[in-house]
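thread: overnight batch results

M.L. [08:02]
morning all. the overnight job finished for the chain we discussed friday. pasting input first so we're all looking at the same thing
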Amino acid sequence: QVQLVESGGGLVQAGESLRLSCAASGRSIASINAMGWYRQAPGKQREFVAVITSRGSTNYADSVKGRFTISRDNAKITVYLQMNSLKPEDTAVYYCNADMVITARRYWGQGTQVTVSS
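M.L. [08:03]
and the structure it wrote out:
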């Protein structure tokens, strides 16, 4: 079992920055492989934002490349999403996820709201 708790969301103006955090806990945290972020805007499907593997390899959605940076503290089992140059279209609930090594099971956090005003 893995529990994920996000924090850091809020209301900002376009062009500003936010940093999201996601802390993992539970009996199975040693088996976590990749961790990442998805987001869901009102009326839209949940979409991929960024991912980082246990070895530090990263991948980003085209819409956030060059603006968002994902990082990971393996000692704290925490993943971060630094979001710069935010745009109104980045407004969404941001969800953290963790993928397990052997089972490939995916766990989700409860989500954190990010609102960017124009």
